[in-house]
Amino acid sequence: MTPALHLFLIVSAALFCIGLLAALSRRHAIFILIGIEMMLAAANLNFIAFWRFGPQPQQPIGVMVAIFSIAIAAAEAAVGLALVLAVYRHYRTTNVDQLNQLKG
To answer: What is the pTM of this model?
Structure first.
């Protein structure tokens, strides 16, 4: 028994909703970054699912897009963590509510 497309879409939607909830409801900067990474993982799951269940899955276009997205997510995580470390060294907190001095 192989799973159908709608099961992958349900899992992807749930993962995206959990990531969105984590990104919007947390005050800790690292948890916000984790939520964004979960949303990107849900998008990658959609790319792979639509490629796999498409009419002709011979060309790995969905896989290439997902690998490119993973590379972009890795770069985003590196830059995001560098920003969090820089803010922590200056303000000694990663609570985003206390970072109101960054406004121009």
So the answer is: 0.81
Tokens in use for 59? 């060309």
Which residues fall within 8 angstroms of residue 29, CB to CB, at 6 or more apart? 84, 87, 94, 95, 96
Q: What is the tally of structural domains in the chain?
A: 1
Specify if 18 maps to a domain: no
Taking only the tens of pLDDT, the chain with its 104 residues reads 678 999 999 999 999 999 999 999 988 888 999 999 999 999 999 988 888 888 876 678 778 888 988 898 899 889 989 988 988 898 888 888 777 766 55
Backbone torsions φ then ψ of 95, nearest 5 degrees: -75, 120
